[in-house]
Amino acid sequence: MTADIAGDAELEAAPGRGPLRDLVARLAAAAPLAPALLGIDGTAVTFAELAERSAKIAAGIPREARRVAVAMANDADSVARLAAVWARGASAVPLGALLPDREAIRRVAESHCDAVLGRPGVAAVLRPGEAPADDEEALVIFTSGTTGRPKGTVLSFPALSRSLLGIAQGSGLPGDGRLPTAVPRAASPIFTPMAHMAGVLGVLSAWYTGKPALLVPKFDAEMALRLVDEFGVTVLKLTPAMVYDLGRWPQERTLGAVRSVTVGTAGIPDATREEFENRYGVPVLRNYGQTEFSGAIAFERIEDVRAGRRPPSTVGRIAPGVEVRITAPDGQDLPPGRVGEIVARGGGSMTGYIGPDGRPVPPTPQGWVHTGDLGALDADGFLSVLGRVREMILCGGFNVYPAVVEAALNKLPGIVDSAVAGAPEPRLGEIPVAVVVPAGGPPTVAGIRAALREELAPYEIPRHIAFAAALPRTENGKVDRAGVVRQAIEGG
């Protein structure tokens, strides 16, 4: 016996209230004993149990509430809170466990929340009619703030549904929307925080592809290797830092039944990817997306990787249902191979950013989202990402792309990872600086600069280079460029 979640046709139609708003309740009615969530200690929560938890929580949410802030960690209670908010007819504003109260209070106020779940010390005032009464609105997720203060991104149920469909179609995973009724051996581990887009999509896509979600409170390389064996994991979704840790695990291990690894949230150096692939014999597939797109804009296909179709800095081909343009500063489209801003649109894109009145402001009249990322499309349709527009370094009138410099650094012997950023400089405006992670004994700064002269133009070579055991990163694994500048100036 199996239970329908949502077949491709239903997801493609993407009606406003479903199939996601009442997903847990429908699954509980159809297959109450199907496993929804697993814990790393082997505990399981069925859909019937999850529905019961969420119903109790929903009973305490005011019916007038339109937006509800939800404390989100990688545990069953957090998933129950999210299901409760959706079932009550409201949209959820996730608050991460590491978020300071001051920032949580700001997000609650800016998104005009009517209630708060699971976060003592953070409150909201119920003001009926103040938040938008949009039945299609599912989430307000604040971006990581790489271009400034985090902004609330409004995502709809149709956008999430189309994103899930694209994930299933593009990855070659079964997307028939069915779950087994017995606890299966295979599970889908969720290592990324549930307060972020990757965590929410991870749980939903696990269910959509017929697997329970294995909630992991905190990533640890040794534990991840154990979970792969214990739960029969076939696909791993990791951040670059996680790939790095697993690739350098000191003991001899295998990845069991894992067929591929998908890496997102930030760019991964070629050296880190190659070290992992050579060790485990499992391909690492790059994935490029943003919160504003509720998922992937482009990703590598396994067939391309096996055939050796992997241009430098590529993140693969454009995802199904997504359009991408590369534009110059004046907004004009650039030809294949030219570097410009990546501009995209598609069914999974956001409704808009939260405006002063709490209502979403569309990105553009035509639905195009300016990603803020620099990249290029080649003639074969492969997208390369070279950094952020605001991270591009303008050194004495010359453009310096951090990703290009990082790729050159990461090819050098004795360097396993690096990050490049622009530091203010009175004469040239900005200069490139770098933090590098050495392998074993660090190379010399003079040796690095000498080697880079064979690969880069003089203005691209970092003026300050510091060595560190790990790159400075934000909570969701992205490189902290301000931290790179501080470390490079102080140490180099």
Description of the molecule:
The protein is globular. With 492 residues, the chain is α/β, with parallel strands linked by helices. Helices cover 28% and strands 28% of the residues. A hairpin with a 4-residue loop joins strand 21 (369-377) and strand 22. Among the domains are: 2-157, Rossmann fold (3-Layer(aba) Sandwich); 393-491, 2-Layer Sandwich (GMP Synthetase, Chain A, domain 3), CATH 3.30.300.30. The protein has a nine-stranded mixed beta sheet, with helices on both faces. A four-stranded mixed beta sheet has the order 3-2-11-10.
Biggest β-sheet: count, sense, barrel?
9 strands, mixed
Order of adjacent strands in the largest pleated sheet = 12-13-14-15-16-22-21-18-17
Unreliable segments of 5+ consecutive residues: 1-18, 174-183
Q: What is the CATH class designation of the domain at 2-157?
A: Alpha Beta
> What would the CATH topology of the domain at 2-157 be?
Rossmann fold
CATH architecture of the domain at 2-157: 3-Layer(aba) Sandwich
Structural class: alpha/beta
Global outline: globular
Report the strand count.
27
Helix content: 25-40%
What is the residue-mean pLDDT, rounded to a whole number? 86
H/I helix tally: 14
Tell me the distance between the termini.
63 Å
From the alpha-carbon coordinates, what is the Rg to the nearest angstrom?
Answer: 23 Å
